[in-house]
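Because discrete structure vocabularies remain unfamiliar, we first show an illustrative case, written as a sequence plus integers encoding its fold.
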Amino acid sequence: MTTRNMGGANQYDRDEEVNGFDESKIGVKGLVDAGVTSLPRFFIHPPETLANLKPSPVRPDSQPIPTIDLSAPRATVVEQVAQASRQFGFFQIVNHGIPVELLDRTIGAIRAFHEQPMEVKAGFYRRRNSAAAYHYFRTLTCFSQKPPAGGSIPCALP
């Protein structure tokens, strides 16, 4: 999408700005770390793309995130995973047998990775369509021309 001012004085090329941001490999955290105090223009969707969106009301009967107990019979677990995936798109697993200390170390490693300088993380950065085996993603929804519908959660595909 290329947006241009009809007067010709102020031309804005959204694709160029998105590509520049993408090539910088700094991601949203890099913007925050750099002290940016206003959103880059490509993050802001024009009113016509937002006109038909309606916020999802919070229902008093809304359900919590599904929790799946892996100590249940296999058929039960499979059905619960399928249902939670269809209905919610995500779920929590309990009784998986992974020691808490390993989970804590994993979270610590993830945090340590994200706290590294941008130059280090940039070496791991890949766009979704890249052939790389491992992907380091940042916010993807800013690249879509239409924002996600109210109440929906975008999906990052490998």
Observations:
- Strands lie at 3-4, 11-12, 67-69, 92-94.
- The first strand starts at residue 3 and ends at 4.
- Residues 128 and 158 are 7 Å apart (CA to CA).
